[in-house]
Request: fold
Amino acid sequence: MIRMPPQRNHIASCAVRRETDRSTLVRLGALFVCGLVLTIGFVHAATQHTTAVQHGYKSETLRRERDELLAERRRLMLALAEAQTPARLEEAARTLGLEPARARQLDLSAIADAEVAKGEPSMLTPVAVATSAVNHSSLAAR
Reply:
């Protein structure tokens, strides 16, 4: 076996160069792209989840507000119905200074004629119509 003495000057001036392995670069690039796609997917999923939770909170708030408004509407409808009762209306009319209508102030014939014109059966009896006609003629005579 022939041994050669090491040439230190020659080794120092030569840099050791490795061959580039293209398959390793391709694998690293593919791994980077896959990692990037996975990261973007996770970020997108987290954003979607956060948006869904926010919409859930908003819809719950709106549902609660709707329920409150429906309860208030029911309360107001009840108060309106209570305010429109005949006893309440009569009381309010009296506080305004109004008095109940008297029989001689009513013109029942006009009411009966309007009902007949509509084609509805008259709720007034013929006696009431005749009485109102007499009262009407007596008022016209004055």
In short: The first helix runs from residue 8 to 13. The mean pLDDT is 81. Residues 101-142 form one domain.
